[in-house]
Automatic annotation (TrEMBL):
<keyword id="KW-0328">Glycosyltransferase</keyword>
<feature type="transmembrane region" description="Helical">
    <location>
        <begin position="577"/>
        <end position="599"/>
    </location>
</feature>
<dbReference type="GO" id="GO:0012505">
    <property type="term" value="C:endomembrane system"/>
</dbReference>
<feature type="transmembrane region" description="Helical">
    <location>
        <begin position="42"/>
        <end position="58"/>
    </location>
</feature>
<dbReference type="Pfam" id="PF03552">
    <property type="entry name" value="Cellulose_synt"/>
</dbReference>
<feature type="binding site">
    <location>
        <position position="263"/>
    </location>
    <ligand>
        <name>Mn(2+)</name>
    </ligand>
</feature>
<feature type="active site">
    <location>
        <position position="128"/>
    </location>
</feature>
<feature type="transmembrane region" description="Helical">
    <location>
        <begin position="498"/>
        <end position="517"/>
    </location>
</feature>
<dbReference type="GO" id="GO:0071555">
    <property type="term" value="P:cell wall organization"/>
</dbReference>
<feature type="active site">
    <location>
        <position position="426"/>
    </location>
</feature>
<feature type="binding site">
    <location>
        <position position="99"/>
    </location>
    <ligand>
        <name>UDP-alpha-D-glucose</name>
    </ligand>
</feature>
<dbReference type="GO" id="GO:0030244">
    <property type="term" value="P:cellulose biosynthetic process"/>
</dbReference>
<keyword id="KW-0472">Membrane</keyword>
<feature type="transmembrane region" description="Helical">
    <location>
        <begin position="619"/>
        <end position="647"/>
    </location>
</feature>
<keyword id="KW-0961">Cell wall biogenesis/degradation</keyword>
<keyword id="KW-0812">Transmembrane</keyword>
<dbReference type="InterPro" id="IPR005150">
    <property type="entry name" value="Cellulose_synth"/>
</dbReference>
Length: 713
């Protein structure tokens, strides 16, 4: 009998989810019936239809969630370590000032230090900014790797990112020596960063000096291809004489006349260049800040790829995104547990989790074709034997990195490689691969395989959400709409899952309606919901409470805390009225041929103070952003409506009975908006709301109350 490499189990909550689905479906039908038999606002009906539609789509994730376990200790019974398939690691960076080169280098070093045969491991770094600063950091990292890799191997280090390891403290004498070396590396790179270029005095090697001399006329969007073999396994050894893995720096050619297709284009350039150099059958994609936290992560992925009964149609193994440095209550909801764990477990029970852009081990062949009927030949798993730095190999690599390579090769980005056509190239690529018949697997070990950094700025978090929503709209309203195309190509439930994400931006419709209309009606004494004494009241109570209770239970099942769950639902509300709203407007304007008005976001608080406020659990509103105007407007409308509505309800006979739902709704939003009120009216630190934003919010609130007066009286 073949050794067991992995097993799985349908999550016990699947049965409860299905029972809840039946009860909730009946309740929704009753709600719609109530709308048709009683006079109600059309806008409330519209909001309820949208909420019901999004709830229905979300049931795809809840129908058959799966948990998996791997047994990497059994791999030795399947294959010898020297016969493991080669692995190419892709790391993408684009801006040395937004993505510090030392951090990117730490990510690369953590991948170089995998417990994997060095002659079968290659790390490719794509620098889409074409920055000499990034290349300089990697020249330094290549030198440091000669000491760092044997140190990790001999001491059983698990955190193999030097930045993460040295920040954890507790260094012995040998570790202190390594730390001094790493600090020297950082100082040299920081010195170049301060100057804005690589001073040749910082470079010792004549060969390196010649390379940096060519950099003077390079710009971010106009430069030739640069391919530099920094480490080559066949030639380079560490200080113990052990061969080092390959490490290759790539900056693809860019010119203003050729589209570069953002990160998907960079990944496809890596795909082609690596094919000419190492051509490993397995590919790991990593974000530049997503460091390895488990040197045995590749072995966990191999538990699926080396299962001959499982692997013929397996495209990728997806690890969850996990984060470090998040504050106690995760005030900006940076963990994304619902997306990266709950959602992936749900999809894993259907055709497999979606690709989330990092922590993904791909079968190279899945990026070129549809699933084969039979297993590929063993020749696919052979590593090329020629030197990477040979003239012939580099010539082919430069051709593959050319900006004109895809001219006349329209299959790139549509049928081959990472897919173009959406700002969320990861979501779109995973979705299209599933539509082709490939499947995927979610691997979620107890020890996080990879750790990254979540946004610690509210503006950054909201801007990131806006970009995602625009990209998801691009898929939602394309010929590959998940509800229409995906449901036919994959399955109905998987189509629901992908459509749920694609329609994420639509949350702004019900959230804005429920965030303003009942409150304005409350202010003017107009009841929109059943009385508390009416049996229909309990229907609304059940719909609200059961949704939130289920949400809380799921969140805590995957290791979440109640405080963090509260932060997550608050950020869902905030993003619905900010990121989602502006993304919807941007997408509509782009579809009618108008350019969306941009806005420059310049924080007025120093980074050190912003980080300190974040660590203390304080929101930072120091930027004069339109996001904050919409938040402030809804917060002001709700608190004024709640105060005046409560007074009127108490003074009027039967008022509380008639207005209870609207009072509870306003009170709920006021509670969620407390950090906004503090930032507007009581805080004196650098994270307070700019006066211009507060004034704009008050003005818009006044306009809304005037419109409410016209509408309700």
């Amino acid at each position: 009998m073949a050794p067991l490499l992995h097993t799985h189990q349908i999550h016990p909550r699947a049965t409860l989810n299905r029972l809840h689905f039946l009860l909730y479906s009946l309740s929704l039908l009753l709600l719609l019936h109530h709308h048709t038999t009683t006079p109600s606002s059309f806008l409330l009906l519209l909001a309820d239809v949208f909420l019901g539609f999004m709830w229905l789509l979300s049931q795809g994730y809840r129908w058959r969630p799966v948990r998996r376990w791997e047994f990497p200790e059994h791999l030795s019974k399947v294959t010898d370590s020297k016969d493991l398939p080669a692995l190419d690691v892709f790391i993408c960076t684009a801006d040395p000032y937004k993505e510090p080169p030392v951090g990117v280098a730490s990510t690369a070093l953590s991948a170089l230090a995998f417990d994997y045969p060095s002659d079968r491991l290659s790390v490719y770094v794509s620098d889409d900014g074409g920055s000499d600063l990034t290349l300089f950091a990697f020249f330094e990292a290549a030198k440091f790797a000669r000491c760092w890799l044997p140190f990790c191997r001999q001491n059983g280090v698990m955190e193999r990112s030097p930045e993460a390891y040295f920040q954890s403290g507790g260094c012995d004498a040998e570790a202190e020596e390594m730390k001094v070396m790493f600090e020297s590396l950082k100082e040299r790179v920081d010195c170049a960063m301060e100057k804005g270029y690589v001073d040749l005095n910082l470079v010792n090697s004549p060969e390196e000096k010649e390379i940096f001399k060519t950099w003077k006329n390079f710009t971010r969007n106009d430069h030739p291809s640069v391919i530099q073999v920094l480490l080559e396994s066949k030639k380079d050894k560490d200080i113990t004489g052990h061969p080092l893995p390959n490490m290759i720096y790539i900056s693809r050619e860019k010119c203003p006349t050729s589209p570069h297709n953002f990160k998907a284009g960079a990944l496809n350039a890596l795909l082609r260049v690596s094919e000419t150099m190492t051509n490993a059958p397995l590919i790991l994609t990593l974000d530049c800040d997503m460091c390895s936290n488990d040197p045995n992560a590749p072995q966990r992925a191999l538990c699926y790829f080396l299962d001959k009964d499982f692997s013929p149609n397996l495209s990728f193994v997806q690890f969850p995104q996990r984060y470090i440095g998040i504050n106690k209550n995760d005030i900006y909801s940076g963990e994304f547990r619902r997306v990266f764990i709950l959602g992936e477990q749900g999809l894993d029970g259907l055709q497999g989790p979606n690709y989330v852009g990092t922590g993904s081990f791909f079968s190279r062949r899945s990026l070129y074709s549809s699933p084969p009927v039979t297993m590929p030949s063993s020749d696919e798993f052979k590593v090329q034997s020629c030197l990477l730095s040979s003239e012939l190999v580099l010539l082919k690599a430069h051709e593959a990195a050319s900006s004109e390579y895809e001219h006349g090769r329209k299959e790139w980005g549509s049928q081959i490689g990472f897919r173009y056509g959406s700002l969320v190239e990861d979501y779109y690529t995973g979705y299209r691969l599933h539509c082709q018949g490939w499947r995927s697997v979610f691997c979620n070990p107890d020890r996080p395989a990879f750790l990254g950094e979540a946004p610690k700025s509210l503006v950054d978090a909201l801007s990131q959400g806006k970009r995602w929503f625009v990209g998801l709209y691009q898929v939602c309203f394309s010929r590959y709409c998940p509800l229409l195309y995906g449901s036919r190509k994959i399955s109905l439930l998987a189509g629901f899952c992908y459509m749920y994400y694609a329609a994420w931006g639509c949350w702004c419709i019900p959230l804005i309606i429920y965030g303003l209309l009942p409150q304005l009606a409350l202010f003017y004494g107009k009841s929109l919901f059943p009385k508390a004494s009416d049996p229909w009241f309990f229907l609304y109570a059940y719909l609200f409470l059961s949704t939130y209770v289920q949400d809380l239970i799921e969140f805590m099942e995957v290791g979440g805390l109640i405080q963090r769950w509260w932060s997550e639902q608050r950020m869902w509300l905030i993003k619905g009225i900010t990121s989602s709203t502006f993304a919807t407007l941007d997408f509509i304007l782009s579809q009618i041929g108008c350019s969306a008005p941009g806005f420059n976001l310049t924080s007025k608080v120093k980074k050190e103070e912003e980080n300190k406020l974040y660590e203390n659990g304080k929101f930072v509103f120091s930027t004069a952003s339109p996001f904050f105007v919409s938040m402030g407007t809804i917060a002001i409308v709700n608190v004024i409506s709640f105060i005046f509505g409560f007074i009127k309800a108490v003074l009027r006979v039967g008022g509380l009975d008639e207005m209870l739902i609207q009072l509870l709704l306003s009170g709920f939003i006021v509670t969620n908006s407390w950090p906004i009120y503090e930032a507007m009216f009581t805080r004196k630190d650098g994270g307070k709301m700019p006066e211009s934003v507060t004034k704009a919010s008050i003005l818009l609130s006044t306009i809304l109350f005037c419109l409410g007066n016209f509408y309700f009286t």
